[in-house]
Amino acid sequence: MTSTDDRPLRRDAQLNRDRIIRAAQEVFAQRGLAGTFHNVADQAGVGLGTVYRRFATKELLVEAVYEQRLADFVGTVEAALHAPTGWDGLVDVLSTAARLHATDRGLRDVVLTRGHRPRSFAAFTDRMEPLLNQLVDRARTEGSLRADVTAEDLPILLALISEVAMHGDPVRPGIHARYLQLLLDGLRRSPTAGALGEPLARRELDAIADSWLPRLDHT
């Protein structure tokens, strides 16, 4: 077989791969990571075997769909560090994350998921944690963020808003923004704010996340 004969096969394979990724974006956005290869194959209009030939595991498909979007969000957090104030940056990050979680259940699951994850997603977490710590430290130092809030509080707050978005937005689109604003008001430093108690240690945050947040399904 000549290289001329090979080229159409490679083009077909790339077209199928692109079609599968687009279909997976739609399936995961609607169903979260509970979406299956069968769902993706049906959405793409291809056979199940074609999906498996392009992506041997669900992790590989999830990575192909969301790797760039996670990188873009890291860029959002990096830009927030240069906002006029730490509070402005924090509000931008939380508002952007809430909007993304509300419009794409798969992205929500990717950011909050526990258990085995694609390697690039572990790198995303490694990049995000120091950036969020810097942002929280800046807002606290400037006096806009209450002094007893830590970066470990942010995943819990995002999970709460994500739950409101997942269950409330289908009833009233955008209702999560109301509760995001309530949370933001509660994060502001105030002389009348009640004490929060001891902040979460990282091991405690991990324990809570393991029992609450979604896990990546291999099917």
UniProtKB/TrEMBL annotation:
DNA-binding region extent: 36-55
PROSITE patterns to which the protein is assigned, alphabetical: HTH_TETR_2
Entry annotated with the keyword Transcription: yes
Superkingdom of origin organism: Bacteria
InterPro entries: Homeodomain-like_sf, HTH-type_TetR-like_transc_reg, HTH_TetR, Tet_transcr_reg_TetR-rel_C_sf, TetR_SbtR-like_C
HTH tetR-type domain sequence ranges: 14-73
Record key words, sorted: DNA-binding, Transcription, Transcription regulation
Gene3D superfamilies: Tetracycline Repressor, domain 2
Transmembrane segments: none
SUPFAM superfamilies reported for this sequence: Homeodomain-like (SSF46689), Tetracyclin repressor-like, C-terminal domain (SSF48498)
One Pfam family from the record: TetR_N
Protein name: TetR family transcriptional regulator
Lineage: Bacteria, Bacillati, Actinomycetota, Actinomycetes, Micromonosporales
